[in-house]
Please model this.
Amino acid sequence: MNKILALIEMSGGEMCSTTPGLLAAAARLGTPVAVVAVAPGGGTGLVAELGSLGAEHVYLAESDQVGKLLVGPQLEALSAAMTALQPVAVVVANSAEGRDVAARLAARTRAGLIVDAVDVRSEGERIVATHSVFGGAYAVESTVEGAPAIVTVRQGAIEERANAATPAVTTVTVSADPAHSAVIESVSARDAGSDRPELRGAARVVSGGRGLGSRESFVLVEQLADALGAAVGASRAAVDAGYVAQTSQVGQTGITVSPQLYVALGISGAIQHRAGMQTAKTIVAINTDADAPIFDVADFGVVGDVFTVVPQLIEAIKARASR
Amino acid sequence: MKIAVLVKQVPDTDEERRLDPASGLLDRLAGENVADEINERALEVALSHKDSHKGTEVVVISLGPESVTKALRKVLSMGADSAVHVLDEALAGADAGRTAVVLAAAVKQAGVDLVVAGNESTDGRGGVVPAMVAEQLGLPHLSFLDAVEISAGSVTGERGTDSGSMVVSAPLPAVISVTERSAEARFPNFRGIMMAKRKPLSVVSLADLGMDPDFAGMGRSVVVTTSARPLRTAGKKIVDEGNAGTRLAEFLVAEQLV
Model:
């Protein structure tokens, strides 16, 4: 059967949360091969878990450059696996690292590149990917002419899981040309700080905008998020005003979310914000301005003050939960 | 030091953006076309280095249809020294791979120490072209930089990752791509606008770059189908009369969201 390589990204010694979805995508298209760049001897502990997530083959590319050079080791791992295994496709997460690796791999191998797929399928000999364009205003399907296809998959887009397998293991040594790679000087992990869900891929999101008025008042967004078990997001205006970190920004230039429930508090709903959230299943908006464009896309809109409506909403949710 | 800034013309995000349903390509006539905001920030990274380092030369490079001239004149008016516009019918509908191969050839011809690009365009949002250009040129690439420091022989930057941040560096020549946190773009002044009209803007074809218009042996992505999704419509809208929080909770319960 056709081999499909999946690049497994590592972060702080753990496999990234994109791993199960990527292996599921690979399993849909053919035989999933997990490719992972690890420090020498560092991969043996990963094999069983990758098997449980559907990898039929684990390709461990050992390099002492892992964690020292940006992108290089992962690129060489996939490059070596492509040469050895001749896959029909390579799937990579559409993360910062994943995009860089996929881009360089496609340029190096002159392969066609499909970016930010929200769905993938096989159609005869070719691979067809679905994209959500202009904030979900268009669905576009694309394919690659000339094999293989390199595809980056939007994080959280593929929720199914592949059947477990008992993987064969190949271990090789790879080395990137230091002259072609950037050097990682230092790494700092984001403050964990809370057990809120991660914004990207969250099933529920509560976002705050300029209408919150201050950094201190933004806590109201967090309180509602916690009552709903939701992730915290923000409009660009709230980020620019310093209420919240840029990593929470939803929209054209921030994170694109597609949750079951999106609650917009004090967000006017500029087109750039809507582009990042309008594929949400249900949208709720609270804003004092009855003409705010956010109401054009809201399933339930409240013209009112977030500082009176939201506390009442939280009380009602808590009362229901304690019943 | 000579710095190249890559510029893409995109539809203005303040207006409705459309795809041509037949070709799946961007409908460039639907709205105003502008230099992408992220490119103006990339330009600012180059210009602020030029401000403090005499002898720095900034060339902007773009690939696209004839209308790109307008975007290029704008960035020239902001302070870039010259512009290169790669214009060729064979490039209509070029995917990221072809775009990158051509941009890399134009960068090579310009002979620069540093290439600065935006991390991703506001229309395609692919975010892969800078890395592909770097691979074509065999150069290191620092991507998604929130902050940049350029020195005589190297470039350093801070970059957000999915789990935190990191500081990365590379010797020059190198390619960097910057995020919207990197710099606030300047506005062109009257003098800049007048000067921009006299600055060199060269239009080059694939033949001028010594490139094969058939891109033989190169895979590419092509659009199979394009469909517009139905527009979202407004649902229920209520004005708070003291019980909106409770009514909203009832809505969420009815929708089985709490």
